[in-house]
Design brief:
Layout (H helix, E strand, L loop, with lengths): L1 E9 L10 E6 L11 H8 L5 H10 E4 L4 E4 L5 E4 L1 H11 L6 H4 L1 E2 L7 E2 L5 E9 L1 H6 L7 H23 L2 E7 L4 E10 L1 E7 L2 H4 L18 E7 L2 E2 L18 E5 L11 H30 L3 H28 L2 H19 L2 H4 L20 H7 L11
Antiparallel strand pairs: 1-2, 1-14, 3-4, 3-8, 4-5, 5-12, 6-11, 7-11, 8-10, 9-10, 11-12, 12-13
Helix pairs in contact: 3-9, 8-9
């Protein structure tokens, strides 16, 4: 997916050949490579990406199976990503003698590059719309369970046929809450080696409070190299370095494999998240954070071994704190209600769609709006009114 940003102002470089921007404004939405808003790009930015430009960006982007995105930056297999994305590989390559996560690593020659234990990089090679075939497996009169089983069987068959035909990893992904099904074909690189990682203190300068802030004054990168048949892979599509950095007002795109937005969830679904799901997740991540912190304090080796898991739990706790803050915000909830009412009103005016809505007057728990939190509720849900993304 791609997201657009407009650069508003640039600060002086804080280290050689590295500049940061003081603020950026992100446009609404994330877009699929096979469905970019070309009209919007042209009207708003006077930018018309060609199919070749989109394909180049798509194939320059890589997905890490440890979780995260990156991009190729050279013709001989170098790939760059964030330090926390590479942390799992650094952790597994470390030992009691060498803590690469904390101390960093630099391979002066290719012979010194460290082969990752189980890291895999995926490059999206093609996208095919298979919605009709997946939905066609569901026959009239099927129960919900039978329909789900039919879709699952169709997806498995599509993936199997594609893998046998192309040799590429083939995944059917569901979009728009089942509204579309696309077949993604990936080229897999399973020989991945560590080339460079800065010291953790440099990569994570500002600590956890700065983790979700922008700009961040650190060197949050890791560099890997992919190999094929024992030699550096030959890469046709990669992103080139720009030593000058972005200029004022320059349109900038971010490409990768982001999480879902869940923007099509109904009030009922959001109310269930607010009252049941999110508090449960918060309690779990809070317990895990406390336990891992206590265990890590027992020894240096314990701290090294649990560092990656602790980092993930802290990130998730902050994320769900943000969910709580938003879902209990009356202004945000009113906006969500208004959005759904607008959709329901439009459906009710269409005779073909009217029958899909629930009977008038039916009670829906979400329409009651956010409940007030008592002190007991707060202790159970780990809710606090602090700013989303900030630690107490």
């Amino acid at each position: 997916m791609v997201t657009a940003f407009s650069i508003s102002r640039k600060l002086l470089p804080f280290i050689a050949a590295c500049a940061v921007v003081s603020s950026v404004s992100a446009d609404e939405g994330m877009w699929l490579f096979n469905n970019p808003p070309l009209k919007q790009f042209k009207e708003k930015y006077q930018f018309e990406p060609t199919p070749q430009w989109l394909e180049h960006l798509q194939k320059s982007s890589v997905r890490f199976n440890s979780g995260g995105s990156g991009s190729f930056v050279s013709a001989n297999g170098l790939a760059i990503t964030n330090h926390h994305v590479g942390a799992d590989a650094l952790q597994k390559a470390s030992s009691e003698q060498h803590n690469y996560l904390k101390e960093g690593f630099y391979a002066k020659t290719r012979d010194q590059e460290i082969k990752c234990a189980d890291l895999e990089l995926n490059v999206l090679m093609s996208i095919e719309d298979v919605t009709a075939r997946v939905n066609g497996a569901v026959k009239q009169g099927m129960s919900a369970d039978a329909a789900a089983a039919a879709r699952t069987s169709a997806i498995a068959q599509i993936e199997k046929e594609s893998k046998e035909k192309t040799g590429l990893r083939s995944d059917v992904v569901t979009l728009y809450q089942g509204g579309a099904s696309h077949l993604y074909r990936y080229k897999r690189y399973d020989d991945v080696r560590i080339v460079f990682a800065p010291e953790q203190q440099m990569a994570f300068y500002g600590g956890d409070p700065d983790n979700f802030e922008y700009p961040r004054f650190d060197l949050d990168i890791c560099i890997f190299r992919v190999y094929e048949n024992g030699s550096p892979a030959k890469i046709d599509n990669f992103l080139k370095w720009n030593s000058k950095g972005p200029s004022d007002g320059e349109l900038t795109f971010v490409s990768g494999s982001p999480g879902r937005t869940d923007r099509q969830e109904t009030i009922d679904e959001l109310a269930d998240r607010r009252d049941r799901e999110v508090p449960n997740w918060l309690r779990m991540f809070n317990r895990r954070e406390v336990m891992l912190t206590a265990w890590g304090q027992r020894s240096f080796e314990n701290a090294r071994r649990c560092r990656d898991d602790l980092f993930g739990d802290q990130n998730n706790r902050k994320r769900y704190d943000g969910y709580v803050a938003a879902l209990f915000d009356p202004e945000i909830w009113s906006a969500i209600e208004a959005r759904e009412k607008k959709l329901r009103d439009a459906i009710s005016r269409d005779p073909k769609l009217r029958s899909t809505t629930e009977p008038a007057g039916a009670e829906r728990r979400g329409r009651e709006g956010p409940r007030g939190l008592t002190s007991g509720d707060a202790s159970q849900s780990n809710y606090s009114p602090r700013k989303p993304g900030m630690r107490a």
